Amino acid sequence: MGRDHRKLGVRPAHFDAFEVALIEALRMRAGARWTGELEDAWLRMLRLAVSAMVRGADEAIAEPPSWEATVTSHEFRTPHLAVLRVRPHQPYAFRAGQYASLESPLLEQAWRPYYLACAPHPDGELEFHVRAQRADGVSDALVHGTRVGGTVRLSAPRGALALPERTPSADVLLIASGTGWAATKALLQHIDSERSRAHRVRLLLDGRTGEGVYDAAYLEDFRLGRPWLTVLTCQAEPAGPAGPAGPSADRPALRVLDKMLAQRPGAAARQHVFLALAPEVPEASMTDSLRAVAARLAAAGVPASHIHHDTAALTGVTGTSASTTRTGLRSA
Ligand SMILES: Cc1cc2nc3c(=O)[nH]c(=O)nc-3n(C[C@H](O)[C@H](O)[C@H](O)COP(=O)(O)OP(=O)(O)OC[C@H]3O[C@@H](n4cnc5c(N)ncnc54)[C@H](O)[C@@H]3O)c2cc1C
Q1: How does pLDDT run across 122-148, given as a tens digit for each residue?
Q2: Residues 190 and 138 grouped into a single domain
Q3: Which residues span the domain enclosing 233?
Q4: How many domains does the chain have?
């Protein structure tokens, strides 16, 4: 967070003001229940957190607080979903599977996270897939208010879906829906570039969110001549009386997942699973589906430390948090 907050112009001196303001707010809110002991405990906790954030900011001193990038391509794939390519003005190091926060010049200081939809490439160009959810938001500005030649700002990359430099040679199961495909696209490109590593990769792409699988031509082309990759897609079904997003909307994908897990029952304990489920959908409405997927993986014997995700909603189901999952995969 200390590294990331530099994009907002936060400097170490601001933390003193933050500490004073927070303690004052707590004191006012707690009223007669506020004691010297309580204040000391809060101060200890705050200073511990602040020192970690200052350390994070210090460690990132050699890199810019944010990166300006020029939009080199902007393509509509559906009326509300655009694929943007941008070229940062300074080198931008990241790992496949990570996300960056983006700021549009139309909404200064409003930053929102988006997956980097490509593995690092020598030409330095980055790809993002953005689905506009509501008028006036950052996604809307990126989809409907951005043109080739315009600029955006990027934060430092983050995320728990990143593969380490050398991916473990275990089986990999990628489960994606909506713009979560962006993260898995990057992971596939990264695995493909590591030709010396033996992988068996399965991708379950649920196209029933939003307007379906919007990058199908790329996927069709990519899977050709890559026998290590198995792709299963769930397409939108015609709307029934309850509509495609009714209470049973996640069932076909879960049925496919059950089948995949049953195919090689003994292999579950060794595989790594990466979940990138429709990040553009409000978290509350995705929680049930996410939990259903995580519970099935756990029941099939996938260890919690092998389930990678960026979603706080899964913490407690998989037994790991979004940040600890990353540590679980990191190779030496
Ligand atoms: C790790 C991660 C990766 C992501 N990657 C992508 C990606 O690759 N592509 C992508 O498109 N998205 C991605 N997202 C989701 C994206 O960051 C969010 O959808 C983001 O909030 C959009 O910003 P916004 O300003 O357009 O909308 P926000 O203002 O942030 O609104 C977000 C949601 O809240 C609802 N909302 C907001 N205000 C109101 C209100 N007043 N009343 C009712 N509902 C409201 C909106 O309908 C919307 O669904 C990712 C999210 C995470 C956490």
Answers
A1: 999 999 999 998 899 999 999 999 999
A2: no
A3: 172-329
A4: 3
Atom of ligand 1 nearest to the CA of 158: 1
Whether 162 maps to a domain, the answer reads no
Residue 114: CB within 6 Å of ligand 1?
yes
* Stretches in the chain below the pLDDT threshold 50: 240-249, 321, 323-332
Q: Which of 112, 281, 287, 310 to mutate for ligand 1's pocket (most ligand atoms within 8 Å of CB)?
A: 112
In a domain, 138, yes or no: yes
**Residue 138: CATH number of its domain:** 2.40.30.10
**pLDDT at position 162, please?**
83
Which of 113, 128, 154 terminates a domain? The answer is: 154
Backbone angles phi, psi at 259, to 5 degrees: -65, -45
> b/e for 230-242, b at 16 or more Cβ within 10 A?
ebebbebeeeeee
Q: What is the DSSP letter of 265?
A: G
Distance CA 47, CA 91 (A): 33
Torsion angle (degrees, nearest 10) of CA 113, 119, 123, 127: -40
Whether 42 and 149 share a structural domain: no
Ligand 1 pocket: which of 77, 84, 134, 277 to mutate (most atoms within 8 A of CB): 134
